[in-house]
Amino acid sequence: MYKIVRREEMAHGTIILNEIEAPQIAKKAKAGQFVILIANERGERIPLTMADVDKEKGTITIIYMIVGKSTRLFSTLKVGDGYSDVVGPLGQPTHIEKKGTVVCVGGGTGTAVLHPITRAMYQAGNRVIAIVGARNKDYIIMKEQMQNVSHELRICTDDGSEGRHGFVTEELKEILESEDVAEVVAIGPVPMMKFVSKLTKEYGVPTTVSLNPIMIDGTGMCGGCRVTIGGMTKFACVDGPEFDGHQVDFDGLMRRLLAYKTEEEHSENCFFEQEA
Amino acid sequence: MDYEVEAKYLSKKERRAIPRQSMPEQAPDVRNKDFSEVTLGFGLLEAQYEAARCIQCKDPACVKGCPVGINIPAFLEQIVEGDLNGAINTVWDRTALPAVCGRVCPQEIQCEEVCVVGKKKGREPVGIGNLEMFIADWARDTGVTNEVEIPPSTGKKVAVVGSGPAGITVAGDLAKKGHDVTIYEAFHRAGGVLLYGIPEFRLAKSIVDYEIEQLKKLGVKIVCNTVVGRTVDVDELIEEMGYDAVFIGVGAGLPNFLNIPGEDLNGVFSANEYLTRANLMKAFDFPKYDTPIIPGRNVAILGAGNVAMDAARTAIRLGAKKVTIVYRRTREQSPSRKIEIHHAEQEGVQFKFLTSPLEFIGDANGKLVGINCEKMELGEPDEGGRARPIPTGEHEYIDCDLAIISIGTSANPLLTKTTENLKLNKWGNIEADRRTGKTTKKGVWAGGDITLGQATVILAMGMGRDAANSIDAYLKGEEEW
Ligand SMILES: Cc1cc2nc3c(=O)[nH]c(=O)nc-3n(C[C@H](O)[C@H](O)[C@H](O)COP(=O)(O)OP(=O)(O)OC[C@H]3O[C@@H](n4cnc5c(N)ncnc54)[C@H](O)[C@@H]3O)c2cc1C
Ligand SMILES: Cc1cc2nc3c(=O)[nH]c(=O)nc-3n(C[C@H](O)[C@H](O)[C@H](O)COP(=O)(O)OP(=O)(O)OC[C@H]3O[C@@H](n4cnc5c(N)ncnc54)[C@H](O)[C@@H]3O)c2cc1C
Ligand code: SF4
Ligand code: SF4
Ligand code: FES
CB 3.0–4.6 Å: which of A9, B76, B346, B363 could bond B51 by disulfide? Predict the structure, then answer.
């Protein structure tokens, strides 16, 4: 069992943080990599990015949004409970390099995934501008942590309850207009990454996005996570999860994410009935 | 069959007159709705009659036909005599996994193909595979285990990467020789293809679990959730973790795709994904188990090997109304075992030969609705001697809401890319010495599908055994690197 040693709730309990004992994984993990977790022997394999790693304590931290059956089941696990299985680190680490000004754009729980990358960019000596977007101010996560690893933090909310009233793309556009940006890293909902990539393409600024297709093994043996990058089929779990945003077929990714919609809803309803 | 007289009392002539005993099976229209094993196994008397058909050749062809050289006439005669304990030990002498081999070995092209009894007109070979299954099941049911005196610990540590038949064999053999063995497996459960690929109805998972338990009893440690090349590297195993030898048996798990338009539509699967969901993750029992699978009403399987048959028969059991195997060559050219095609047909699977997919067609939501195909005809033989299918220009549209691509797998580069000094062949398989399994990297052996490309359980086991012998000799200082 992989024990949970810390648990926190964010954004009105819709987003959960777990710090988990996994010394082998912690030893190897790099920014941008993910793990696959299983709650119990009937559980499915769920990929989540490591939002933090403590090599000394031998722990990894995941932050996830409750969106369906498995993440709901995860959210019932308390400190002292654990996951039956955790495997990793999987995927390619983020390519970190000193380039100049880097803009890191996070949306929703994507901010959690973005945090270690932002930190690595910051530590590599880049000038880092972070943009964090959310529905409203209660759903902004990791504000302080992001502040600590960036030179400038800008907030956007859909309803204007904090920071800019509008989308992250508007904030980003202003920066692109006024500064020489070497790279943009965008992680969040697929539509957000799509529009950020569209915008940066107009400005010719290299852009990295982190894709989240449905996965099973995470080692390249099922092909379920395939995404189309520049017309070529790639496996997100081994070739990614990060890709050149200008090459990604986002519409294809969105379609594939809906493959099990009926089954997922059914599964979650069964879970609710069982809990009741 | 009338089993009034025990087989051992029959005369030679009477023995020769016994027809091949058919394997009891569940009826096709019962079994195609459920995942329990199709074959039910022989009873003792049936087994003894079948074994009595063997004429005890002086120079038995069957033994040469078996990749691991089981002493077949000996164990058959022990069954006839009622010495079941002796029989199972004869088998164990050569294979660690008889319950598995008896079920999934392609016997008809190995031991049974060359059996002299089957060479006579109108006669069928001795059912060696069925008898191997019988004796292994008997041992498991009665709790007879392969008792060996384990010598005192040698103090040598061996890491085995991958828990398929190759890894299981190496681990078992080396543990019995007193070495300290640990298996590292990427998945959350051990067994390799036996677990995630070959379906329950052909090989009950309880059998695989039993074999894994036996390994643990020998002192083998099994560490799951460890992707070598990610969680830990081969060099770390040797340099930091103190392993004296490493065996790589990671299989050939990378699915091949057709590379035709529409392959990213929802409803298009690799056989690996489909079977892994169904077998390992138990999606057939969704939502009791959390992993979903798209059930599919009208399913097309592309390819016609064993894997394709497994996918087709799984789809039928998951409730598909129609399942069609689409293959660009002919029935005779199918690489599948005849029994698998036969079982699939019995269960209602349909076949479309000389048909090659050109494009997957989807609806506005990106869901698969059909496949555009081209009719083929047989042309000149290729290098392998098989007549090559050539396009006719005539098209055919096949309706389907699920397509499962089963056109083989290749070596997964995850481990090999992260390991230095490991020479690969042009297909990405590890180059290993045929006799010993030694690779080009000191202290590292390899065997099974990662060296052969997709092959068979028994070949993987055989290579495992050879590698174990070589590793043992090396660790004892009897063999130089
Ligand atoms: C590499 C990677 C990293 C990720 N990192 C994070 C993260 O740090 N935080 C976070 O909140 N989410 C992350 N996700 C998404 C997370 O895996 C899904 O939200 C989760 O699997 C949903 O499962 P569920 O059963 O709760 O919901 P379901 O009801 O099953 O599904 C909800 C949605 O999640 C997607 N999904 C379902 N099953 C899977 C699966 N096996 N693999 C991937 N997606 C699936 C589906 O597209 C579906 O639309 C990541 C995904 C990937 C591939
Ligand atoms: C659906 C299907 C049906 C088949 N039917 C038959 C049949 O009827 N008869 C027959 O003889 N053969 C059959 N085969 C082929 C047979 O199963 C294989 O030849 C055999 O399993 C190969 O054994 P192996 O030990 O080399 O590898 P595998 O059985 O493939 O096992 C390899 C193991 O290594 C693990 N692994 C991979 N990479 C890593 C890593 N980096 N770190 C740690 N672990 C790793 C994998 O998860 C897996 O558990 C079938 C194959 C399939 C897919
Ligand atoms: S292991 Fe396979 S080839 Fe050998 S005797 Fe058994 S069934 Fe025949
Ligand atoms: S070849 Fe056939 S008859 Fe001869 S020993 Fe083998 S099984 Fe018996
Ligand atoms: S998750 Fe199976 S290949 Fe990527």
Answer: B76
Q: Do B231 and A85 touch (CB under 8 A)?
A: no
Cβ–Cβ of A238/B288 closer than 8 Å? no
B460 lines ligand 2 (CB under 6 A): yes
Give the residue from B254, B108, B127 showing the smallest Cα distance to A217: B254
Please list the rounded mean pLDDT of every run of 10 residues in chain A (276 residues): 94 92 94 94 94 94 92 94 95 91 92 92 93 88 90 89 84 90 94 94 95 94 94 92 96 89 83 78
Residue B285's pLDDT is 84
**Residues A122 and A149: beta-carbon distance below 8 Å:** yes
Domain co-membership, A105 together with A30: no
pLDDT tens across B404-429, in order? 999 999 999 999 988 989 999 999 99
Quote ipTM for the complex: 0.91
Q: Is B128 in the pocket of ligand 3 (CB under 6 A)?
A: yes
**Of A41, A65, A90, which one is at a domain's C-terminal end?**
A90
CB contact under 8 A, B266 and A258: yes
Min mean pLDDT across A130-134, B126-130, B286-290 is at B286-290
Shortest-distance Cα residue to atom 6 of ligand 4? B62
β-bridge pairing A207-210 and A183-187: parallel
Residue A231 domain-assigned? yes
Same domain, A81 and A117: no
**Both A61 and A134 in a single domain?**
no
Is the residue at A275 inside a domain? Answer: no
Residue A119 backbone phi and psi in degrees, to 5: -60, -45
Same domain as A106, residue A35: no
What is the pLDDT of chain B when averaged over all its residues?
A: 93
Q: Which member of A216, A249, A263 has the closest CB to residue B286? A: A263
Structural domain containing residue A47: 2-90
Q: How many domains does chain A have?
A: 2
> Which of the residue ranges A161-165, B80-84, B329-333 would you say has the lowest mean pLDDT?
A161-165
Angstrom distance (rounded) from CA B398 to CA B378: 21
Please give the pLDDT value at position A190: 93
Rounded to the nearest angstrom, the minimum Cα separation between B228 and chain A is: 10
Residue of A nearest to B273 (CA): A222
Which residues of chain A have a CB within 8 Å of the CB of B185?
Answer: none
**CATH number of the domain where residue A73 is located:** 2.40.30.10
Q: Which residue of B has its CA nearest to A45?
A: B291
CB B159 within 8 A of CB B237: yes
A130, A46: one domain: no
- Which distant-in-sequence residues (6+ apart) come within 8 Å of B115 by Cβ? B61, B62, B65, B125, B126, B128
Q: Is A215 in the pocket of ligand 5 (CB under 6 A)?
A: yes
Shortest alpha-carbon distance between residue A170 and chain B (Å):
30
